[in-house]
Amino acid sequence: MKYKNEAQIMKALGIESWRNLSKDKMVRFAAMMPNMDTEVALKIVEQFPAFKNFAKDAVSAIERAHQSTFSANNQSQERVHRAWQEVRDILKGELGKDDLGREEKKFLIEQIQETARMQSQKDSENKQFLDGALKKVLVGATAAVALGVAFVGGRVMAESKDSTESSQDA
Fold first, then answer.
1. Where are the domains of the chain?
2. Model confidence at 1, in pLDDT bands (50, 70, 90)?
3. What is the 3-state secondary structure (H, E, C) of the chain?
4. Residue 9 · residue 15 · CB < 8 Å
5. Which one of 36, 70, 106, 110 is CB 3.0 to 4.6 Å from 3, fit for a cystine?
């Protein structure tokens, strides 16, 4: 269905005024935008600051999720590093015993080295995770802010191209 005026859109959203546009309905509104006349969509978006607030709220929600992920990740990393340090402390304690043979000492030293390698590998994995998480946040924030522009702007350009082609055909 092609929405040709604001009244049709408000009716479809179940609202009487753009002030009644909740976050839920904002998402529905954005999904309906491809089925709206471009001029009507532009007129509506210009009328309510809620669209800007929606984008801000979306970015804030992404930021909170990002912070929560980083906090949980940081706590996990601290526990892992603390556990490896405890293992090394135990191995060093064993290494300090006087009655160890050469092979036992060699084994304990190799175990200490292995925990250091594992810890270094885990640190590298964590850095890759953080890099990926940051990229996702940037993509999410950009998408949230550009939501209206993508729907409305793309339609304006497409309809502008269509009208140019139509005038050339005439």
1. 53-150
2. low
3. CCECCHHHHHHHHCCCCHHHCCHHHHHHHHHHHHHECHHHHHHHHHHCCHHHHHHHHHHHHHHHHHHHHHHHHHHHHHHHHHHHHHHHHHHHHHHCCCCCCHHHHHHHHHHHHHHHHHHHHHHHHHHHHHHHHHHHHHHHHHHHHHHHHHHHHHHHHHHHHHHHHHHHHC
4. no
5. 36
* The token pair that represents 120 in the structure block: 């270094």
Q: Give CA–CA dist 121/133, Å, rounded.
A: 18
